[in-house]
Amino acid sequence: MLEPAKPYRVSWPIALTIVVLVVASTIVVIFLRLESWPAPTARQSTAELERLGKNLRAAFIDIAHLQPRITINDRVYMEQTTLLSELVVLSRQIEVEHELVHTWVGSSKRVKLHGTFIAKAGFDLQQGLSIDVGSNEISVQLPHAQILGVEQQKVDVLEFENGLWNRISGQDIQSEFSVLPQLAWKKAAESGLPAEAEQTLQRQLEERIHTSQPLRLIFKDEKKSE
Hints:
- The protein is an alpha/beta fold.
- It has one domain (36-219).
- The chain has 4 helices and 8 strands, in the order H-H-E-E-E-E-E-E-E-H-H-E.
- The chain has helices at 12-36, 38-64, 170-190, 193-209, and strands spanning 69-72, 75-78, 86-104, 107-124, 130-133, 138-142, 146-161, 215-219.
- The strands form 2 sheets. Strands 2-1-5-6-8 form a 5-stranded mixed sheet, with helices on one face. Strands 3-4-7 form a 3-stranded antiparallel sheet, with helices on both faces.
- The longest helix is centred in the first third of the chain and has 27 residues, at 38-64.
- The chain is rod-shaped and about 130 Å long.
């Protein structure tokens, strides 16, 4: 009669060796995976930042017709190639009036003018413009917005009265005409047009680049022109 086969038993040293080898192999595989994982992630991150840099370049070409200096993580990516002294962001119609009344020996003359101007607000780029695209934010450094100019559209003469012997002179007219642009410039600055230009530029850039990173405009400390 045949004896039943005895069950095969693996000795503890062999079993322990097998377990150690399996665990070691698993650790090696995990290590290799972790070692190779950041490389494609880093390449993807750099590619994304470069895409943002190109979008910013396109946005400034569209808005200002210039290519600004762009850095990515403090490394120069694009140099400024087009020199432009001013970037006009907003234009607004401004109306002002001024009156001259002068009395001499009981004789009075009077001149009253109404002027219509277009005030332009934006940035003086001669003071510098640079962009840095970082992993956490995009920063655009430029001067504060200011009134860049006022253009006369028309001047209406509302009052023109000569005195009996106190006549309106050519110098009176020239002086009154020269006052109107100054009044228009001051009114535009006091109306908040420069601050609105800064907000408009921020909005225009955000609408064009579509990024998850915050976009921050960093203004230099020059005093705004008035």
